[in-house]
Amino acid sequence: MTRAWSDVRGWRGLGTGLLWTAPWWLGFLLFLAIPMGVSLYISFCDYPLLQPPVYVGAANYEALAHDPVFHKVLANTILYAVLAIPLGTVVAVLLAVLLNQPLRGQGLFRTCLFVPTVVPLVGTALVWLWMLNPEYGLVNHALRAVGPVLEAINGVVAGLTGQPSAWLTDLAAGPKWLQAPGWAMAALVLISLWGLGSPVVIYLAGLQEIPQELYEAAMLDGASPIRRFWHVTLPGLSPVILFNVIVGLIGTWQIFALPYVLMRGEQGPERSTYFYTMYLFDNAFRYLKMGYASAMAWIQLLIILLLTGLVFLLSRRAVYYRGA
Asked: Measured between alpha carbons, how far is residue 302 from residues 82, 150, 253, 262, 291 in Å?
């Protein structure tokens, strides 16, 4: 009787625990596990969305391997990640170090840097559409103002190499940012710096955790500010840098809203700003090839997982944890 009562109490406790945790496991099942399972099945089907899915095996994955547009969007996304992540990391770390200095108006500067991150992406894209306008945009207006300086630099380049730099020539005249293939990618990388407020705040928090005793010891050893930054600040920030790099990696592989709005739903000049998620979206909702899009989604997940694991592997000797 005692054992039976104990079993009843055990089952009752299990039921109570499942009831209290129901919001989590029901949400996990309904909004993550089941949709992912359905997506995996659909990736092996020909599913035009308006008709029942037909199982076709690995045909979608084989078609992706021979799809030139898929190769193009894959290369574009890799190029964007290679340009945006290192540049954003360097700029964000330097800004965090500057904003960590005891200066007047420090709170105002921090607020101004963080405000753009709370602006919706569509609003940000519309602002940059105006700023990058080739005729009336603020960016080209500023470039034309310093055009004589850029032309003088181009003259020096022409004297050294025998011909002027086409890049500097376009820059002095004000390039057509969103209409030229080479400049469109550069424009998106430039816009990515607009949303550095969140990583800068995280870097500022990381800077507060670096013991001041390390800086004092470095100063007693005669280390210059640059050496203190290299040997104290960067190692102390390395776990935070790792975190932000991984978050940035995931974000760059899912970039969609900014190029989609900037290019008005098109593929950009010569498909130079046509990214992975944009092609996935077009296959799913423009071409109604849901099976093809699901296969792309699973490949995207595997790429992100592999790159994240690679970053963790490469960071073993570069990341320093306190007490490790």
From this structure: 18, 44, 11, 28, 17
Cβ(262)–Cβ(87) below 8 Å? no
- Whether residue 148 lies inside any domain: the answer is no
**Segment 70-96 mean pLDDT:** 94
What is the distance between the alpha carbons of residues 153 and 169, in angstroms, rounded to a whole number?
10
Q: What is the pLDDT of residues 18-47, one digit of tens each?
A: 888 888 888 889 998 999 999 999 999 999
Half-sphere exposure of 283 (CA within 13 A, CB side): 26
* CATH at 305: 1.10.3720.10
In a domain, 170, yes or no: no
Residue 258: what residue type?
L
- What total number of domains does the chain contain? 1
Residue 292 belongs to a domain: yes
Q: pLDDT (tens digit, 9 = 90+) per residue, 195-244? A: 888 999 999 999 988 888 888 888 888 888 889 889 888 998 999 999 99
Cα gap 69→284, rounded to integer Å: 15
Instruction: For residue 267, give its domain range.
Output: 67-134+176-314
**The dihedral sign for the CA sequence 115, 209, 233, 84:** negative
Question: pTM for this structure?
Answer: 0.89
